[in-house]
Amino acid sequence: MIRNGLAIAALAATMALAGCGKKTPDVLPPAPAEDGQTQTGEDPNAGNVSGVPLPGSRGDFLQNVPSDSVYFETESFSLDGQDRATLDSQIAWLQRYPNVRVTIEGHADERGTREYNLALGDRRANAAKNYLAGRGIPTSRMTVVSWGKERPVALGSDESAWSQNRRAVSVVPQ
Amino acid sequence: MIRLMLLLIPALAFGSALALAQDAPPIVQPSTGLSVDVTDESASDMRIAVPAMPTPQAIDTEAGNTAAVGRQVAEVIANDLSRSGLFQPLGPAAVRAISYPEVTAPQFDYWPQTGAVALVQGFVRAEGNGQLMVGCYLYDVALKTELTRQGYVVAPRDWRRAAHKCADAIYARLSGDSPFFDSRIAYIAESGPKDKRVKRLAIMDSDGANHRFLTNGQSVVMTPRFSPDYRQIVYMSYAGNRPHIYVYNIGTGQQRVVTESANQTFAPRFSPDGRFILYSMSVGGNTDIYRVSANGGQSQRLTNTPGIDVGGSYSPDGSRIVFESDRSGSQQLYVMNADGSSPRRISFGGGGYATPEWSPRGDLIAFTRLAGNFRVGVMTPDGGGERLLTDSWQDEAPTWSPNGRVIQFFRTSQGRGGKSSVWQVDLTGVNERKIPTPLDGSDPAWGPLLP
Q1: What is the CATH number of domain B2-30+44-175?
Q2: Is residue B324 within 8 angstroms of chain A, CB to CB?
């Protein structure tokens, strides 16, 4: 059942992506690259033994959810259907591995001032956290950290880049 | 020369730090028309000659030979005056050298042909105790009178401070305003690609000299502020991936967390008396402003509306705080009493307003205006007289000079290679220039005038 639920959630997310609402980034974030500082975007094959990510590892998480990130409108911290589908799939995975902790990183695009963006990133990370908590993930498993505009994934100064950077990223340990 | 010696020798008694020749005769304000107006943007810059300062005897010191130091002191003075935007200095490279006896007996018949209406002369002398003495004289060329004189005794390594003090004396005498050159800046030195910026806490003199890194870049740091006595810097760090505010002790290099909390704390500011630290804390997505003793202990919450209340800056008398809040739906500026009571909105323009900083003079509040791009502007504490001083893609986070006449901020360029640099602008908005830093720079915070 868990597998089915996961598949459905993943399918829903895929459909939502295909629907390509206004808030969907034109270009999805690039393949995650190594980044020890923020822990986001690690190699999906990290923890890899003979080509298969270890169950419960970050690689396993990234392989089994449509995205580790949910995206927001400018200034906004509300989740839409696509975000909820993404988070539902994360919930399914997190429920399979109840001992895995998750850090939710909130980010903002570069069009806000530095300190305000720290607060805005916190709002976004908490929006994701509250959704996960509402669906049964214990808050004791979750940590929130805001990076404001300090760690963009897309480097341009255009709407495409900004839409990718307004995000909350669920990060599980390697 | 005997008169000069008598004048300056008492300064030696002040010892190793920076000593002012307080025993100088009281300055009689001559009936001169020579002055500059810090508020008049149409005022043409005053042409002021600053020849190299001679030395009675060329002696090697820790700072170099006194003859070379004399030229460097004049260069620093000329650069300071130039950066103020009020003067058009003719530095050592532009005017002839003067002899030592000339210092107190200017050749008033010579200087008019250079176009200079004011003249700065001085000397650098090695003292028997290893100190340097710097003499500083300001003359009115047309009236052939002395306007002010100062003497400074400094350790050789502090020779630049003597130059800044001399420039401050000239600025104060000619503008009637309080000085600001002898002060320091804390800021964040930045390097590396946009998605992995390395950020280091750094300090420098107000002209970018005496630069020093305080942290090694391992943890992301931001938003430093000097304590009023320059002994500490409060800032935010992601050390251990737990974003908190820290106090860095400049003397010992030690750092300590200000408030232990599971929540993210950021945007720290010292109160004008240094006894309190204002900071912002996010709890479950809601950010409020708090106050804690600079020694730690219990925090007091000052705002309690839903939404983002962030930043904050004390009025110079410590009685009020200006801060930013999006409680109305967009970022706007509010003034409240220091205990958090009676918040009142002061900004109403379209777009938004952020990062308010109260001028040390108390008369203005500087801010970042958000309207697509970011611009630095000022308004009065009741929200009147808004003026924008800069116009670029992103000019953010103003900080005031100690005399409230000049603002530094950081400017970010757009695109994949976007970088930040520290800039300054005066209140006319006309005199804008980049502050030289070894790496990129952001989050400048100007400290008070050094004693």
Answers
A1: 3.40.50.10070
A2: yes
pLDDT at A12: 40
Return phi, psi of residue B444, to 5°. -65, 145
A1-48 confidence digits (pLDDT tens): 333 433 334 434 433 333 334 455 555 444 444 344 444 444 555 555
Label residues B365-384 b or e (16+ Cβ within 10 Å = b). Answer: bbbbbbeeebbbbbbebebe
Residue B61 has pLDDT above 60, yes or no: yes
CATH number of B184-446: 2.120.10.30
A-chain residue closest to B237, CA distance: A147
Q: What topology is assigned to A2-171 in CATH?
A: 60s Ribosomal Protein L30; Chain: A; (3.30.1330)
Q: Range(s) for CATH 3.40.50.10070 in chain B?
A: 2-30+44-175
Is the pLDDT score of B43 beyond 70? no
| Residue A114 touches partner B, C-beta closer than 8 Å | yes
Q: Tell whether A110 lies on the interface with B, counting CB pairs under 8 A.
A: yes
The reported pLDDT for the residue numbered A26 is 52
Residue in chain A lying closest to B443 (CA): A114
**Contact status, residue B174 vs residue B81, Cβ threshold 8 Å:** no
Percent residues over pLDDT 70 in chain B = 91
What is the rounded distance in angstroms from the CA atom of residue B325 to the CA atom of residue B306? 10
A122 contact residues in B (CB cutoff 8 A): 264, 282, 285, 287
The answer for B 27-86 residues in CB contact with A (under 8 A) is none
Q: Delimit the domains of chain A by residue range.
A: 2-171
Instruction: Mark yes or no for CB contact B267/A118 under 8 Å.
Output: yes
ipTM summary value: 0.89
Q: What is the average pLDDT across A124-142?
A: 98
Per-residue confidence (pLDDT) for residue B36, from 0 to 100: 75
Contact B45, B78 (CB under 8 A): no
Is residue B240 within 8 angstroms of chain A, CB to CB?
A: no
Alpha helices per DSSP H over A55-154 = 58-64, 81-96, 114-134
A92 touches chain B (CB under 8 A): no
